Predict the 3D structure of the following.
Amino acid sequence: MVDADQTFVIVGGGLAGAKAAETLRTEGFTGRVILICDERDHPYERPPLSKGYLLGKEERDSVFVHEPAWYARHDVELHLGQTVDAIDRAARTVRFGDDGTTVHYDKLLLATGAEPRRLDVPGTDLAGVHHLRRLAHSERLKGVLSSLGRDNGHLVIAGAGWIGLEIAAAARQYGAEVTVVHRGQTPLHSVLGPELGQLFADLHHEHGVRFHFGATLTGITGQDGMVLAARTDDGEEHPAHAVLAAIGAAPRVALAEAAGLELADPAAGGGVLVDERLRTSDPDVYAAGDVASFPHGVFGTRLRVEHWANALNGGPAAARSMLGREERYDRVPYFFSDQYDLGMEYSGWAPPGSYDQVVIRGDAGKRQFIAFWVKEGHVLAGMNVNVWDVTGPIQGMIRSRQPVDTEALGDPHVPLESLVARTS
């Protein structure tokens, strides 16, 4: 039984933490809610940082989860610019890192997110080396891209994942010269495999992006603190006025690890180990968002998902679990990307090696199609490119775990909804 005398503490002021606080109030919790954020900005959403806000199409205020007054109005104690450096599970307290203040909790949610992986090469201390995770990073990068475009400057991007490609697209739209260095042979290989990765390579080639595949950065050279060039392990040297590290993110597990909470295997993505209700190995501690590794009933494996939708839905799911609701968290992973005139949505989970064919519905050459990753007739994932309002049936096929007629799946004249009905 949850009562008004209880205190729920949320560590992490991103989307997952903010939505968890919101859900506690909408679900009727009248106890104390404390939300601790290590940034000085109010909780915000991250997709605009590499999309609309970075391009100058969205105002700064549009990125925030709630207006600033919302927190006081809903009696959420928001601590900005504060860190937690220790959890005492026996005493059920968290300790603030700045002054050592301790706060008691009845239930604790860890929504500490992830941090961008840093380049471990000479020259990363130069002023022109960047990464993107926080609002301040996006604001700085916006100015850099604008300057590069104005001066015909060069940006070298390490990594051809979603962040790397979205920033490449933004940089080209600002007018900057762009070279992407990627150790694989196609972009996005770990998500899309070689079949669809080439489509994104072709898209960026058409917009003037240069790719250097099969290579990694080994050093960044500069003068007077400024970047001049980036070297790769095959002896190439690329002119550069700025370098962006887009080589993935690591879950922020130090706090959980120090508290003795069970962690997931780093080889499987790492993160804080939680059950289907987002409870950690301590029944009074929960985790959600980028940091949580949860068992997924549909895919039969543990997943750690770093995308916006997981924070949007995982935070509320954890909040309901903290309130004693018996709810399993098994949302189908979902994300979206906008690059130039290409918009896409991806649902599911199908890393290379997990599927036996890719079925295309529509015209991939015109970049208006749906791709399905299929194993033994079962749809594992689907990506709609410049085709809209199909996420529902795509996710319905994934969730059904039933075989589908792949010939009908690839036929645009067969309504997707009818395939879901057949597999339900």
In short: Residues 114 and 251 are 4 Å apart (CA to CA). The longest helix spans residues 189-206. The mean pLDDT is 95.
